[in-house]
Amino acid sequence: MIRSFVLVVLLFFPLLFFPQVNDSLREPIFPVEKMKLLENINFTFDMRMGFQAYTFRGGDNYYNGIQFQNGFTALGISGKLHERVNFTFRNRFNKNSEVQTLDRLGNDIELAYIDLEVSPTVNVLLGKMIAFYGGYEYEFSPLYVLEYNDVYNNVLAFVTGAGITYQVFENHKFGLQVLNSRTMHYDDLYGDIVAENIQEPDWPVAFVGNWRGNFFGGKLQTIYSLSHSNEVKRRGTTFFTLGHKYQDRDFTLMYDFHYSFEQVDTKRVMTALLGDGSIAENVLYIENWLRAEYSFSPRFQGLLTLMTSSAYLEVEDSQKHMRRSYGMIPTIYYSPFKNFNFKFFLAYIGRYFDHSNYAIENFAASNYNKNEVRIGFIAPFLLF
């Protein structure tokens, strides 16, 4: 094998010294007058890769796994094309690229929108963008989140539509969006009719509003949001979040509260519990999420994430508690290079899923848990 490789190298090496005048381009690919445009363009390549060892225990789950995993790999392009026109594009390579039947883009294209500056305080966004949901769990790029809580693990975050932001005061900013509530047509998402009151609407639309506040010189920040989406005809989801962040020198503390009432279960957690091919209806999800960060030194940072999620299902005109999940994620970051954003991480992910007696007796549910150790790196590379 080595001899064959050396032979190929020796055969092709002389070609490097052949005259190439005749093969040269008469003009550069990027003319000099066009190079100035690239000064306002940013190319990013983001990676999170790691080695994981995990176990599932409980109910019918008895599984061990060890593997390397590409948790996040994406190429992004953003920039300023005009003094009032910006654009953002991001392609995530480890997502399904199948073109969605409603918005006509693949799931791997997460961002593809333009940002128009109407005035110094008003911006208009058009295209496929991130929904203006609140909370700081959602504020992080998926690059930095090893495990989401149940709602944001299943939420449709990147949707096509239009949005507007208004910087009312220096420390207060409001946003409003009108978006598609899903990326697929009714037939592709739900298949055959699963209930008499689940029908395709003329426009599956979502309205999202949020408020960003800044207090005490930035030490206390908030991201609140309220949204209502029309998933199917005359039935939808009302979702609000309250996000809070306290930051002081080396310490940061974030807390989110989430409330999602879904006339048709879009998160599919309760639908999976039913297990009979029907879509769960009149579902309620209530969540708490807490994350603390502390910088021990310029090279070492410690994180601790705690979360709970409670799910309720309407049975006989009353909401009955079905499931509660718990999560904890202690993490250590190590930055080996000065003035270069590259981090190694070591994390433990513990998730515990407990079902109520009603769910166990009526839906054959069982409690289970997942324990996982990950070691890897996070690299948000700015190429140029």
Automatic annotation (TrEMBL):
Entries under InterPro entries matching the protein: Porin_O/P
Protein name from the UniProt record: Porin
